[in-house]
Design goal:
binds magnesium ion; TIM Barrel; alpha/beta; transferase; binds 4-methyl-5-hydroxyethylthiazole phosphate; metal-binding; 10 helices; binds the ligand Cc1ncc(COP(=O)(O)OP(=O)(O)O)c(N)n1; globular
C-alpha cells in the first residue's frame, strides 16, 4: 500500500528542536537521508505565517516527491493543497475532518487508549499513531506510554497501519517495526541530530532491518 511506504520514516517538525539551524536546511537534509513523509507541526504561528511556511515547505518537498502533512489545521492544509492532515483526540473530530477533505487526502489520527483504537476501526483513517510509544521531553501533555506490549496489542486489534511516535531512536526502531509498527515518527532523533542526513539514513536502515527480520 502506498500509505505504508509514506509512513515508514515520518519526520514531525519542531523548529525549536532544530537547535538554531535553518529549518528548511534540516528538513532537506533529512529528506535526502531517507525521510518518507513530513508533518509541519506549528503550535505558535499565526494563520498567515503558518500558511507561508507551509507553502515554502511544500515547494521544497514537491521537488523530492515527499508528501506534506499539516498538524491540527485542516484550513491550512486545504489552503496550500497539502497531502493531508494529522489530528489528535482534542482536535477537530475525525468524522468532521473527513467531510471537509477531498477523499484522496491522507488523514492521520493519534490514539492514546485501547478504546480509541477500537472506535477508529469504523473510520476511514489512513494511519493511526500510537501516541506516545515512550515518554518524551518533546511532548509532555500525553497519556501513559503504550510501550512495546501496548504496540503488540494494537497490531493484533486494528486493521489500520500503525505509526509509533515518542522516544524513537536508532536503539528502538528495529524493535518497534518487529512488534507491529509500519513506520516511526520522530522529532528530536532527526531535528536535533548533529547530521539530520545521517540520522535519517541510520533510522531508515533500522527500519529496513526490522522489515527484513
Ligand atoms: C504522527 C503523529 N502522531 C501523533 C501526534 C500527536 O498529535 P496530538 O495528540 O494532536 O498532539 P499535537 O501534536 O497536536 O500536540 C502527531 N502530531 N503526529
Ligand atoms: C508530537 C508527539 N506526539 C506524541 S509524542 C510526540 C513528540 C515526539 O518527539 P520525539 O521524537 O522527540 O520523542
Ligand atoms: Mg493535535
Amino acid at each position: 500500500m502506498e500509505i505504508e511506504k509514506h509512513i515508514q520514516l515520518y519526520l514531525v517538525t519542531d523548529e525549536k528542536a532544530c537547535l538554531g539551524r535553518d529549518f528548511f536546511w534540516v528538513v532537506e537534509e533529512a529528506v535526502k537521508g531517507g525521510v518518507t513523509m513530513v508533518q509541519l507541526r506549528e503550535k505558535e504561528l499565526g494563520t498567515r505565517a503558518f500558511i507561508e511556511k507551509g507553502k515554502r515547505l511544500k515547494d521544497l518537498l514537491d521537488m523530492y516527491g515527499v508528501p506534506l502533512i499539516i498538524n491540527d489545521r485542516v484550513d491550512v492544509a486545504l489552503a496550500i493543497d497539502a497531502a493531508g492532515v494529522h489530528v489528535g483526540q482534542s482536535d477537530m473530530p475525525f468524522a468532521i475532518l473527513k467531510n471537509l477533505l477531498p477523499p484522496e487526502k491522507i488523514t492521520g489520527l493519534s490514539v492514546e487508549s485501547k478504546w480509541q483504537v477500537q472506535e477508529a476501526e469504523d473510520w476511514n483513517v489512513s494511519y493511526i499513531a500510537a501516541s506516545p510509544l515512550f515518554s518524551t521531553p518533546s511532548k509532555t501533555d500525553t497519556e501513559s506510554p503504550w510501550g512495546m506490549s501496548g504496540l503488540r496489542w494494537m497490531r493484533d486489534n486494528t486493521h489500520h497501519p500503525v505509526v509509533v511516535i515518542g522516544g524513537l531512536s536508532e536503539t528502538n526502531t528495529k524493535q518497534a517495526i518487529t512488534n507491529g509498527a509500519k513506520g516511526i515518527a520522530v522529532i528530536s532523533a532527526i531535528c536535533s541530530a548533529p547530521s539530520p542526513y545521517e540520522a535519517a539514513q541510520n533510522l531508515r536502515a533500522r527500519i529496513v532491518a526490522g522489515v527484513q527480520s
